[in-house]
C-alpha cells in the first residue's frame, strides 16, 4: 500500500520490470512523469509521516529524504519562522 499521492510499490516494480523495448512512447513519458511526481512527493513528505512500506519503497528507489525536513519546513526555516 502506498501513501496518498505516491506511486504504489507494485506500479514501480511493473514499470522497472517491463523492458524499455516493449514500451510505447506514451508509456515512457508516463513512467518519467510518475517517477518525477513520486520523487517530489517523497521529498515533500517528512520521513516521520511515511508508512513503513513507503519508507522501504523509497529506500529501494532512491527517493528517501533521510529525515530531512519537508520543503514547507525548509521554507519556514529559511524565513526564520521554523521551529529550529
Automatic annotation (TrEMBL):
Bias-annotated ranges (Basic and acidic residues): 9-37
One Pfam family matching this protein: HSP9_HSP12
Transmembrane segments: none
Feature: compositional bias, Polar residues: 39-75
Positions of region (Disordered): 1-84
Name of the protein: Heat shock protein 9/12
Lineage, opening ranks: Eukaryota, Fungi, Dikarya, Basidiomycota, Agaricomycotina
